[in-house]
Design a protein that fits this description.
With 74 residues, the chain is mainly α. It has one domain. 77% of the residues lie in helices and 0% in strands. Helix 1 packs parallel to helix 3 and helix 2 runs antiparallel to helix 3. The radius of gyration is 14 Å and the shape is elongated. The protein starts with a helix and ends in a 9-residue tail after the last helix. The model has no long low-confidence stretch (mean pLDDT 78).
């Protein structure tokens, strides 16, 4: 229950692109965690963090290809 609240709180503070990465990662991580020993919530939290990281990296790559100056992405 506490993990669910933590995941929801993390997702509430994300922008659109970051939320999309978080949601995709949470879905995949939750399924994998469930089948890997009934740790769905832990997998969802880890997937959210990883998905957010990957979304940020993709945004950085896209910005560099478009010739935009480097910016800090959360």
């Amino acid at each position: 229950m506490r993990m669910t609240v933590a995941v929801l709180a993390l997702m509430m503070g994300l922008s659109g692109a970051q939320a999309a990465g978080c949601l995709k990662g949470a879905l995949v991580g939750g399924v994998v965690g469930h089948y890997a020993g009934r740790h769905g919530l832990l997998g969802a939290a880890a997937g959210c963090i990883y998905g957010r990281h990957e979304a940020n990296e993709e945004a950085k790559r896209r910005a560099q290809q478009e010739g935009q100056p480097n910016q800090y992405y959360r």
